[in-house]
Amino acid sequence: xxxxxxxxxxxxxxxxxxxxxxxxxxxxxxxxxxxxxxxxxxxxxxxxxxxxxxxxxxxxxxxxxxxxxxxxxxxxxxxxxxxxxxxxxxxxxxxxxxxxxxxxxxxxxxxxxxxxxxxxxxxxxxxxxxxxxxxxxxxxxxxxxxxxxxxxxxxxxxxxxxxxxxxxxxxxxxxxxxxxxxxxxxxxxxxxxxxxxxxxxxxxxxxxxxxxxxxxxxxxxxxxxxxxxxxxxxxxxxxxxxxxxxxxxxxxxxxxxxxxxxxxxxxxxxxxxxxxxxxxxxxxxxxxxxxxxxxxxxxxxxxxxxxxxxxxxxxxxxxxxxxxxxxxxxxxxxxxxxxxxxxxxxxxxxxxxxxxxxxxxxxxxxxxxxxxxxxxxxxxxxxxxxxxxxxxxxxxxxxxxxxxxxxxxxxxxxxxxxxxxxxxxxxxxxxxxxxxxxxxxxxxxxxxxxxxxxxxxxxxxxxxxxxxxxxxxxxxxxxxxxxxxxxxxxxxxxxxxxxxxxxxxxxxxxxxxxxxxxxxxxxxxxxxxxxxxxxxxxxxxxxxxxxxxxxxxxxxxxxxxxxxxxxxxxxxxxxxxxxxxxxxxxxxxxxxxxxxxxxxxxxxxxxxxxxxxxxxxxxxxxxxxxxxxxxxxxxxxxxxxxxxxxxxxxxxxxxxxxxxxxxxxxxxxxxxxxxxxxxxxxxxxxxxxxxxxxxxxxxxxxxxxxxxxxxxxxxxxxxxxx
Length: 722
Prior knowledge:
This protein is mainly beta. About 15% of the residues lie in helices and about 40% in strands. The chain has a five-stranded antiparallel beta sheet, covered by helices on one side.
């Protein structure tokens, strides 16, 4: 028995596929998948039914089935984004779309069926060719039974009958089986609600698995409060989700009914239709999360830890990965599930925000991972055989073999076709929808008195010397990061370190030396270098854990941030001249950025013990402590006389008057409050250096059916499935 559909015919007995009388060679497994789909044409065939029917007792995964379907689509010339033959039904299986017709007898070849160049040129199906050929043979037989003279007279009639048959067959094909027009590739802008701007604390946007809905975190331009917004791509107006206050780094459930996010030191979820949020786990620092079809959420929620897994109903948290300190790893971030159940994530070996790292992949049911390539910020699967990855401000696509977990070719930039070449800050992909958030214009460094800070805008992790004459900061590139010193107020820059990864600068009490964390191999250790003498860098301390200096007392003690068990950060003190750091307090919370008071008796530091990052002050001698901030705070800095403490709180700088005798704060006042500003540093005299965000609220470009364009730009290597 033979079965025809479109220009194709399939012979059950010989298990051969033909097109226009020509055989198409396919592997047996691929033909088996085709036969099962044809047998149940119009019905959804479950993946497991296909695996059981084609691979029988062989142990294979869904990847083998996906490869077979992809191979079959290539043979049929089918587009999965606008299918004519094989449709993917999300989370269920596949469905054969084309009408099928059964015929008795084998499929004749081109010679037997009498195919003519004219018939082939008209694009007729094998059955239409067969019908025309039969009519030709009938005309030929009639011609043989008449006299030659009469036969010559019948030639014009034979030609007329042939043309009429061809025209009728072509007309029947056009009127009964029209080819569907492919869905056009479309792009349009998604802008935040008026008066808000896209959140820059973490990747701000997410797309549902079917590509129909986008969610993003945006912050109010006046209050700086952030919330989640939801919008379907076929609608114009977004909706704010009440209960999502302080939300960052959103991600969707596989069915699109929930959106997860980080807020208030927790991992949460909320219905996309609206409702109350539910707390799933503790997560003090948003590092990205992904929701699997089997109800597991993998997330990065510690400032210096690995990935963890929690059920989508909450419950106990299971650690999945841990950074390998001996390799310099600090954090694992931005996980993304592969269709097979494996994971992509980024291994970061720097404490700098948005630092590029190594793209790693983990096989299903494994705890080991391997590195695919370096220089990647984050990556995500983008369709069968492809992954998308961001490298700096560039969005790239790479071909990827999920069976072997390897990149199968070079990466190709897709930025120009999506955003027009503006650069991206992050992206999201789901179904056939891609959202690329364009990178904002560079921020300007401004002093609180309105003066332009000029070249200081290049520096990150900036700190101002105790004498107020210079600033130190970091300049990073793809090969590492170095410490630079800027003269104030001119901004003239001088390089202090050369090569490797150098971060976390801190000034000596007399403003003559720079202390910093450095590494070429292994964990970060302490070193220092004179600013004016330009002597060689002197190593101070190294060990089995990272140490990042934050403040130096007048007697040479160094307050550092180090990594405690479980990926938590802890404040510690390194003795003058070096030695083993003494951790001040170990607990299931994070402490960082410790700052010595000028007399060396107090330490101010960040702590999220309350569930939100606040500034606490403790005595070095006996550990007495009290909370200084009232509404969150970071980056504490002391005044030169030690009577005032400056705290960054969002776009504000709060000045707290200290009452040392009562171990309390006597008064708080807002010293600086400017919309769109991010606090960079505070001088001992109270002068504030801020990065002024551009006035634009940011924009995202949504691209529909972009994967079809990617396949043309970066074709997959053709390999036969197992």
